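A reminder from the course coordinator: this example appears on the midterm review sheet, so study it carefully.

Given structure:
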């Protein structure tokens, strides 16, 4: 039988309704069937490029044809096909995977499956993939692809015949004409530059053969790594280091990084960020002979001070992307100018990357490119993957780009920023919009608080040793502010303060007063019942300890309840409240519905010369905690007047920022600003002293998540006060003293 057609049956009526909604397995089956049909031996045997037909209609003209039905379409095809039609042709059905389909199709035309790889076979598969993507993109851009008039079909057949005959030179020339024809047609209906990025993420487990294979890529790529991973690479794979150096020198590889580690940026001080970048720069330069000019990281969050810091260090751009699943604010564009705090700006690539591991990415790629063309001034499509994890369709896509710019041009990030200079759209975000780092379930909060305290000590040491640059440097105080003169109350406020001070005689053991601040401990719970300043006399804050747990979600059919509505907080019962000198010590139990859930010791003292109370807290749990860390935890609970709607400011890189979050980080301090009144009142401050996580449990209540376990009691310190001029300075000083 002389076969003269190759027909692939697709689950659509036209390419205008091509199924981009397929799941991973279905997408892989569909692409495998289509690209398998472009094997050069099949094209040479039939004398025509492959065609497609709808799997939903009974074929009527399949005489002398090879019919390929993707496995995922088999049920739809078989439900209506006429058996008499099947007799006139050769069929490949119920097979998955390109190699299996190719072998069956070659057998149908009387060809043996080659024992060894043949030249240009992968290029023909890529050509078929390019034809499909070009047609889908043309339709997505409200046009049609007409390659018949360009001589495409004839060039495909001649290229296949030359390859089968062993004429590599003619085969290569004709293949180049095929790709050039697709590129020429593309330039007619969407003459827009499409910039493509191949972003390879390095991890300690992917530095061997996987990485070496990635370095064989036919297109430029970018390596994203921290300094610690580069250090591991230099230790384990010097061959890869040598190749990376060579590729970077040729301009076909760009370094993306900057930091040495990946400590969350929202928990860092500015000096910590500077030190981390400096250590990263030294590591890259020592092992690879150069430093990244584009900032990027796999994990670690983002912070609004980065543009200023990166610009001062000579970075030309950055990736507005985290690759650990953390979402960043939507920048609504591909190419932006990121505006941070203090006037800092830096160019950035902002549209989220596509997953190069999945066939779904490539079944929807035309839509992704079309959407970017519709909305972006500069079209940038970024693919991300770890070495050795990209799917075969990404290999085909890179092969397409090595022949022609059918779907765009792969470039390094440095080249992209150079060739698109001045095209970024300004984007700025509120500081509270940046992602908040959540606690890691398999890492105790106790260890993370210790890390925060140690970081404060390191930051102060670095500040003492750091040379000044350009007459400026980030300041970290070395001591608490000097003692200040207490504010002098007057009028009715003075009378109220005198009345409060006078009440100490009723129970003097439970009150501490240094003339700047006055705190009272509740004898029944052992927590703070009040915190007052002489200038205003009103109660600023109350405090107690609690264990928060969360009830299971309601059964199906019951009214829905949020996590906060299902929260359960234990009680705090003091067994003993004693005063030892200038310290009030409370000992007692945390009580729940089923009995005692823990024990506590809390000591309260006042800072000398400051309106500040120091809480030293020890909590021992009756049983280990279970569940998400911010749904099951020990807490220091703060409350203020229920009729007040204050503004909450949290520390981010030592700066106070307004927050409306109910779960947030603030490793140094929190400020509670009173609602606007006729009498101006200074803010109430909670110095968190390294405790990162806080949960608002109501409009007038805040939980500071304490490190606690069921074995050894954990000692935690928190300071509360009001009217501090520079709470960040006091917090850093106390953290270094308590470490």
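Designed residues:
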């Amino acid at each position: 039988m002389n076969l003269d057609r190759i027909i692939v049956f697709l689950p659509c009526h036209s390419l205008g309704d091509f199924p981009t909604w397929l799941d991973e397995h279905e997408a892989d089956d569909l692409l495998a069937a289509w690209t398998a049909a472009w094997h050069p031996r099949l094209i040479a045997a039939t004398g025509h490029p492959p065609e497609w037909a709808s799997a939903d209609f009974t074929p009527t003209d399949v005489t002398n044809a090879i019919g390929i039905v993707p496995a995922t379409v088999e049920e739809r095809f078989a439900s209506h096909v006429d058996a008499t039609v099947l007799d006139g042709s050769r069929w490949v059905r119920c097979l998955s995977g390109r190699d299996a389909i190719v072998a069956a199709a070659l057998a149908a035309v009387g060809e043996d499956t080659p024992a060894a790889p043949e030249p240009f076979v992968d290029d023909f598969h890529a050509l078929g993939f390019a034809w499909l993507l070009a047609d889908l993109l043309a339709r997505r851009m409200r046009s049609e692809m007409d390659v018949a008039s360009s001589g495409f079909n004839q060039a495909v057949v001649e290229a296949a015949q030359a390859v089968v005959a062993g004429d590599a030179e003619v085969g290569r020339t004709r293949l180049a004409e095929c790709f050039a024809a697709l590129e020429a047609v593309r330039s007619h209906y969407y003459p827009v530059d499409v910039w493509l990025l191949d972003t390879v993420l390095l991890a300690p487990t992917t530095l061997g053969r996987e990485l070496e294979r990635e370095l064989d890529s036919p297109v430029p790529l970018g390596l994203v790594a921290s300094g610690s991973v580069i250090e591991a690479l230099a230790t384990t794979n010097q061959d890869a280091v040598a190749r990376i150096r060579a590729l970077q020198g040729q301009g076909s590889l760009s370094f993306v990084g900057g930091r040495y580690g990946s400590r969350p940026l929202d928990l860092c001080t500015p000096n910590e960020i500077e030190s981390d970048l400096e250590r990263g720069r030294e590591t890259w330069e020592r092992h690879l002979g150069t430093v990244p000019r584009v900032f990027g990281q796999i994990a670690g969050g983002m912070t609004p001070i980065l543009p200023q810091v990166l610009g001062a260090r000579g970075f030309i751009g950055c990736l507005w992307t985290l690759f650990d699943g953390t979402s960043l604010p939507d920048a609504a564009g591909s190419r932006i100018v990121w505006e941070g705090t203090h006037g800092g700006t830096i160019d950035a690539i902002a549209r989220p990357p596509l997953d190069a591991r999945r066939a779904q990415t490539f079944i929807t790629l035309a839509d992704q490119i079309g959407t970017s063309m519709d909305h972006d001034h500069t079209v940038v499509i970024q693919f991300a993957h770890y070495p050795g994890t990209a799917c075969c369709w990404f290999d085909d896509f890179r092969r397409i780009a090595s022949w022609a710019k059918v779907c765009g041009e792969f470039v390094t990030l440095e080249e992209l920023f150079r060739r698109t200079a001045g095209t970024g759209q300004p984007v700025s975000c509120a500081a509270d919009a940046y992602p908040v780092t959540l606690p890691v379930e398999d890492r105790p909060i106790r260890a993370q608080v210790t890390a925060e305290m140690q970081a404060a000590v390191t930051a102060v040491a670095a500040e003492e040793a750091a040379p000044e640059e350009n007459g400026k440097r980030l300041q970290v105080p070395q001591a608490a502010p000097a003692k200040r003169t207490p504010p002098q109350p007057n009028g009715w406020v003075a009378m109220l303060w005198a009345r409060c001070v006078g009440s100490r005689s009723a129970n003097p053991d439970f009150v501490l007063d240094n003339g700047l601040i006055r705190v009272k401990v509740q004898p029944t719970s052992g927590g703070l019942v009040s915190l007052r300043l002489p200038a205003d006399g009103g109660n600023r804050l109350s405090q107690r300890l609690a264990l928060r747990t969360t009830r299971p979600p309601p059964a199906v059919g019951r009214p829905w309840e949020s996590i906060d509505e299902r929260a359960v907080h234990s009680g705090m019962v003091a067994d003993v409240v004693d005063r030892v000198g200038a310290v009030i010590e409370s000992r007692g139990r945390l009580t729940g519905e089923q009995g005692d859930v823990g024990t506590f010791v809390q000591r309260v003292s006042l800072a000398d010369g400051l309106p500040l109370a120091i809480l030293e807290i020890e909590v021992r749990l009756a049983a280990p905690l279970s569940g998400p860390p911010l749904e099951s935890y020990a807490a220091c609970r703060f409350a203020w007047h229920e009729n007040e709607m204050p503004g909450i400011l949290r520390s981010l890189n030592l700066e106070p920022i307004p927050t409306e979050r109910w779960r947030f980080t603030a490793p140094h301090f929190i400020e509670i600003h009173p609602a606007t009144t006729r009498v101006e009142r200074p803010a109430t401050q909670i110095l968190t002293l390294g405790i990162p996580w806080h949960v608002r449990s109501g409009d007038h209540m805040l939980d500071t998540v304490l490190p606690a376990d069921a074995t050894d009691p954990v000692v935690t310190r928190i300071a509360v006060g009001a009217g501090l001029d520079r709470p960040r300075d006091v917090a850093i000083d106390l953290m270094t003293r308590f470490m």
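DSSP finds 20 helices and 33 strands in the chain. The longest helix spans residues 168-189.
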